[in-house]
Specification:
Strand content: under 5%
Radius of gyration: 17 Å
Distance between the termini: 55 Å
Largest sheet: none
Number of domains: 1
Oligomer: single chain
Order of helices and strands: HHH
Helix content: over 70%
Number of strands: 0
């Protein structure tokens, strides 16, 4: 395997790991606010790492420019959407989970 192939495998594996962390965050965390935080951070990083690996596979081509634009779009919109969802939940009066509420 070449250095480029190893780097692609490492980037895609890291992206898959952070995607898995986002899934675990959705399943394990107690409320909307913590779930949104886990998914917006981990999912964005996982997508960007995976897109970086895909860009390396394509080489110097128009597909790399499209991949970069897609990465920038997701980098801006994914956390913004998570913030909008949690802000709407807060405005609707959905209370965050607290330790006292678990008893």
């Amino acid at each position: 395997m070449t250095i480029t192939e190893l780097l692609v495998v490492a980037l895609v594996a890291a992206g898959t790991f952070f995607g898995f962390v986002a899934v675990v965050g959705i399943v394990r965390l107690p409320d909307l606010y913590t779930r949104a935080h886990a998914t917006s951070k981990s999912d964005t990083l996982g997508i960007l790492l995976t897109l970086s690996g895909a860009a390396l596979v394509f080489g110097a081509d128009l597909a790399v420019a499209k991949t970069a634009l897609l990465g920038i779009f997701l980098f801006v919109t994914n956390p913004t959407a998570a913030h909008a969802i949690t802000r709407a939940a807060y405005d609707q009066g959905i209370a965050p989970w607290t330790q006292e509420g678990d008893e």
